[in-house]
Amino acid sequence: MQHSITGSSALSARPCFTFYRPSGWTLAAAVVALIIATPILTILGFLFYPGSGTWQHLADTVLADYVINSLLLMLGVAAGAGSIGICTAWLTSMYSFPGRQLFVWSLLLPLAIPAYIIAFTYTGMFEAAGPVQEWIRESFNLRYGEYWFPEIRSLGGAISMLSLVLYPYVYLLARTAFLDQSVCALEASRTLGCGPWRSFFFVALPLARPAIVTGLSLALMETLADYGTVQYFGISTFTTGIFRTWFGLDDSVAAAQLSGLLMTFVFVLILLEHWSRRQARFHHTTNRYQTLPNIKLPPLMGWIATIACLLPLFFGFLLPVGQLTQWAIMTFSEMVNESFYELMLNSFPLAGAAAVLALIPALILGYGNRNRATPLSRFLVRLSGMGYAIPGTVIAVGVLIPFGALDNSIDNWMLKHLNISTGLIFSGTVFILLFAYMVRFFTVSLNSVESGLAKIRPSLDEAAKTMGYGGFEILRHLHLPIMKGTLLTALIIVFVDVVKELPATLVLRPFNFNTLAVRAFELASDERLADSSTAAIAIVFVSIIPVIILSRTIAHSRPGQPQ
Amino acid sequence: MNHWIRLLISAFVLTLLSAPTLAAEEVNLYSARKEALIKPLLDRFTQQTGIKVNLITGKAKTLLKRVQSEGHNTPADILLTTDAGNLHAATAAHLLQPVDNVTLNAVVPQNLHDPEDRWYALSIRSRVIVYSKERVKASELSTYEDLANPKWKGRICVRSSSNIYNQSLLASLISHNGAKQAENWAKGIVANMAQPPKGNDRSQVKAVAVGICDIAIINTYYMGVMLQKDGPQKKAASQVSIFFPNQDGRGAHINISGAGIIKDAKHKENAIRLLEFLVSDEAQQWYAQANHEYPIKSGIPVSDIVNAWGYPFKQDTLNVAELGKYNADAVKIFDRAGWK
């Protein structure tokens, strides 16, 4: 067995015990996966309640709409976010052109804007009653209906909004993958006569496929979980349907059935990602690294590349933030006061803690499955990762129910045996909120850990072991340096996601505890866009800082690059 | 790494700090009314009584689930929502207790509180018709029922039926006219829509102003808020007028914001005092002035903007509990009618 050496190594006796006994890892992984899957299982549990006639009613009336619209939305976002993300990642990692240094990090900026904020902002600008169309009407003396203008609140509009804020997921992972590729493969393809396009399509793209598919699946899961945008644009999807069924028809069983159907979509996504990874093992092709060539583009091509990178940055960030800034200047004095700083103080540590908390179980599961994955443990891992595609409110309810039951049973037990009432221990605390974030964003961390681990060939571990390295040392000196970039990516995406997170925060937060997202949404959903802009901008700027750290680290994390 | 450890520790400290402290004089409020539209009143209450109000805001139905899952240990004393449907859902789930309070029973009209005294209205909102001053004459308008008339084909804007205000409006039609007629009405409206439902009530006003449609169905206070501040919203709102339907019959449809006391409330006395405060003249005036809603009792002045639309007007006297009773039926009818 490949683990036989480490058990006897005196050097690593203590840490190795936990890290390298496969049964321990597998068990820990299973327990962690089960805990994280609890809210999802709770929701699915509703499936076994006696149903009413609601499902039939849904099937007769609106179900087809939900399915078709959700599918179209996903296809649209996959095409939009995918093409933007891959193109910009390829351009910025392989070529030098005007502004490249700037684009490397600034292309990540749209990640900082919550989808509902960009939806509100674009609607404010481009709706029929907005300033742009009004200008058209006044300048050309037209009336509404006498000129063509794209309807922003439509399926196409929703696809555009979501693509603009979600492409950074693809960009981020694709770029990391492009940078991690050994340049040798590309050189080999060149010497074999492949031009730049062929090298891209037949060498670089297939090598980067696991990362790209991971990025896409994150973007699509977020698309499925989106509620704010589709609701505001009046598009019936699974999420709006779940809300309507649960809260309008007051039928939690039918809502769970809808959630179940949604989860099958997610499962297909996950399978697709895994299938894509399994097609080939994408370990490092070689360990010889050279500085990437950074081919200098001729002036015309260079400027085309600049424009290609500028467009998503402009529409995904500069334009909406410009509008928000204009609103914020109008309302700054009214909206920024002590309570505003309190919001910031609430939001940041919360997001930081959530990011770390989501990474720990991801590491446990990642390693647990790497050493010895059984079909059951693999299934549990997939199940626990589904939170990312489930609307925050549904997660929140799934978290509330088991914790409420746990709290009340502890209380009952303590009352009965010790005559002490413990009340609610978890419910209504930051703990339960952090747990919900963990459930919701766990996939992000797990995917990063797994794609990081996939880069480490098992033979590397074995080589290290034959050289007498213990498990802990292998982790520290071998895995950590290789995975640093991906782990940081995980931390930062979760951080930014939590700063933006809304529905679960709304339901689960403790008394008198507000975050920036809550403030921004409460005002924006009342169409007090101008008033909500200060909080929205704060979210954006808060998220920018980690995004910049991230991009710097990616630039430096390439093996063989001077640190 | 140290940095993250510190963050973790601060998160735990936060956990401890944010657990509700056991001060004697406090009351815990779960509110579906947004912070900006309730906090000033709560601060005033604390000033007057010394009772601290702890607040969580959120969507009504999820707050309700939270109370439910917290069980008898729930810290919530009061559930406050912005429509009767959700209060009805709370009573159906046995989450509220009867409050036999003289003040509340005297102040809140019979049709605006639960027949078993488990919740009370705190303010009234009316769902009415707005019309383009340019393209529609008030004399062309009459009732909600008339909006299904083919003469309005392609001329009506209204928001999604996922919105509870629309659900309550249809529930009132079910209660008055029966489910069959209500469904025909919903189908008629869908046939008359100028565009698929999108945006909220303010968007509908803007759509009428721009010329996408000629009339829209909205809650009045949105118009009030749009009109109170200079800017594009005010410009849009000044191009439309408000029409109170069914004035020759049962009156315009009304809904309420209201509150009830949780069955397991730990601070029942304070909770009652807060409800009494919220129906006091001072609080009623605040609702009327700050958010342009209608007070639940006569003699309270409404805002100037609201007054200009005509006040008092004839209100539907249907007990608002009925709106909750027919909520699920209304949603199903909307689904069948194809009202998105």
Verbal overview:
With 563 residues, chain A is mainly α. Chain A folds into two domains: 1-45 and 336-514, MetI-like fold (Orthogonal Bundle), CATH 1.10.3720.10; 51-318, MetI-like fold (Orthogonal Bundle). Chain A contains 24 helices and two strands. Chain A is globular and about 80 Å long. In chain A, 54% of the residues are buried. The model of chain A is unreliable at 1-21 and 559-563 (pLDDT under 50). By secondary structure, chain B is α/β, with parallel strands linked by helices. Chain B has two domains: 24-124 and 255-308, Periplasmic binding protein-like II (D-Maltodextrin-Binding Protein, domain 2); 126-253 and 319-337, D-Maltodextrin-Binding Protein, domain 2, CATH 3.40.190. Chain B is 44% helix and 15% strand. Chain B is built from 15 helices and nine strands. Chain B has helices spanning 2-18, 39-49, 60-70, 84-92, 102-107, 164-177, 179-192, 201-210, 220-228, 232-237, 268-278, 281-290, 304-308, 321-325, 327-337; strands at 26-31, 52-57, 78-81, 96-97, 119-132, 156-157, 215-219, 240-243, 254-262. In chain B, strands 1, 2, 3, 4, 5, 6, 7, 8 and 9 form a nine-stranded mixed β-sheet that branches. In chain B, strand 1, helix 2 and strand 2 form a beta-alpha-beta unit. In chain B, helix 6 crosses helix 7, helix 6 crosses helix 15 and helix 7 crosses helix 15. Residues 15-23 of chain B have low confidence and may be disordered. Chains A and B meet through helix 4, helix 8, helix 12, helix 13 and helix 16 of A and helix 1, strand 2, helix 3, helix 8 and helix 10 of B.
Summary?
Chain A is mainly α and 563 residues long. Chain A has helices at 4-8, 13-20, 22-45, 54-60, 63-94, 100-106, 115-126, 131-140, 155-180, 183-191, 196-225, 228-233, 238-248, 252-278, 299-335, 338-371, 375-384, 392-418, 430-454, 458-466, 471-500, 503-508, 516-525, 529-556; strands at 95-96, 295-296. Chains A and B meet through helix 4, helix 8, helix 12, helix 13 and helix 16 of A and helix 1, strand 2, helix 3, helix 8 and helix 10 of B.
